[in-house]
């Protein structure tokens, strides 16, 4: 029998931490389902300790003994799609039957709320939040196709710029902020406008679905310009592109799963709908899209 994997459940609590988000899954599926998870994928926007990720600590706190614990840093705003792709390969290879994807966006309160940084225009956009998804070998809500692309030529273009200049690990008084000059912003806009439709259309071609037949588009949400350009490129009306920007701001890597959960809770996606999740990361060094046929929650 062909192995298929599906998003079984999601839970979000913006603004919050991965822990309160996970409590929602435990309430729905029981502690046993979480403790028995075979694969744990995590991503934290601003780790407390720079040398390693949070996967081991999360596994311990939840009582897990997974065979695989992976922290993904390069997926950025599209990390949920990257994590799905990793999970697909692992579960299809026989590494297990269930996986948890835990994503936390916590830089709004830790980076953008610094006294000097909060006066910058960039500080008005980010929001904090967390999302946890349970993925299993199942036909209930199958992931129909995934496209992930790395654009290594743009790696490292999103940088931190303290004033006065220093390395992040050097002592000093200058606050860390994201260094996006006007010329760099123009380049990132061009890349994002191109990359997200490209990966979404690649998935559409793979599964034989015209983009205009996507029932709901769920993207990361950096700003309204990107959102408008993406749905226009995919020939979708505004009502089929979930917009939580006013309520949540830019949730970075947590944006796609948080918005998917909002769509489910508010009835924007119903059983049988094809949902396209898509986004790009950092200054355009990664982009990914995944299509799911939603089968409803257990």
UniProtKB/TrEMBL annotation:
The entry's keywords: Acyltransferase, Transferase
Any one of the GO BP annotations: fatty acid biosynthetic process
Keyword Hydrolase applies: no
One Pfam family in the UniProt entry: ACP_syn_III
EC number: 2.3.1.180
Keyword tRNA processing set for record: no
Chain ranges of the Beta-ketoacyl-[acyl-carrier-protein] synthase III C-terminal domain: 208-294
GO MF terms held by the record: 3-oxoacyl-[acyl-carrier-protein] synthase activity; beta-ketoacyl-acyl-carrier-protein synthase III activity
SUPFAM superfamilies: Thiolase-like (SSF53901)
Domain Beta-ketoacyl-[acyl-carrier-protein] synthase III N-terminal, chain residue ranges per copy: 74-152
Listed PANTHER family: 3-OXOACYL-[ACYL-CARRIER-PROTEIN] SYNTHASE 3, BETA-KETOACYL-[ACYL-CARRIER-PROTEIN] SYNTHASE III
Protein name (Swiss-Prot/TrEMBL): 3-oxoacyl-[acyl-carrier-protein] synthase 3
Recorded name of the encoding gene: fabH_4
């Amino acid at each position: 029998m062909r192995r298929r994997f599906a998003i079984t459940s999601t839970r979000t609590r913006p603004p919050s931490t991965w822990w309160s988000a996970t409590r929602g899954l435990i309430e729905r599926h029981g502690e046993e389902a979480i403790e028995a998870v075979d694969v744990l994928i995590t991503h934290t926007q601003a780790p407390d300790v720079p040398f390693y990720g949070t996967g081991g600590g999360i596994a311990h706190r939840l009582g897990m003994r997974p065979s695989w614990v992976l922290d993904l840093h390069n997926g950025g705003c599209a990390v949920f799609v990257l994590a799905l792709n990793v999970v697909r390969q692992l579960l299809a290879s026989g590494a297990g039957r269930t996986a948890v994807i835990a994503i936390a966006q916590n830089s709004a309160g830790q980076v953008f709320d610094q006294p000097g940084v909060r006066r910058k225009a960039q500080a008005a956009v980010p929001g904090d939040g967390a999302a946890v998804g349970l993925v299993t070998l199942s036909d209930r809500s199958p992931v129909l196709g995934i496209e992930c692309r790395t654009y290594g030529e743009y790696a490292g273009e999103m940088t931190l710029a303290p004033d006065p200049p220093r390395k992040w690990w050097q002592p000093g008084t200058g606050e860390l902020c994201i260094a996006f000059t006007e010329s760099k912003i123009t380049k990132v806009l061009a890349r994002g406008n191109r990359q997200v439709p490209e990966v979404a259309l690649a998935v559409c071609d793979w599964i034989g679905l015209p983009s205009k037949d996507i029932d709901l588009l769920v993207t990361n949400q950096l700003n309204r310009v990107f959102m408008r350009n993406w749905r226009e490129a995919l020939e979708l009306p505004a009502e089929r592109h979930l917009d939580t920007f006013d309520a949540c701001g830019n949730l970075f890597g947590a944006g796609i799963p948080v918005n998917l959960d909002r769509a489910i809770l508010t009835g924007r996606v119903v059983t049988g709908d094809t949902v396209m999740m898509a986004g790009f990361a950092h200054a355009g060094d990664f982009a990914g899209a995944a299509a799911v046929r939603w089968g409803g929650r257990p």
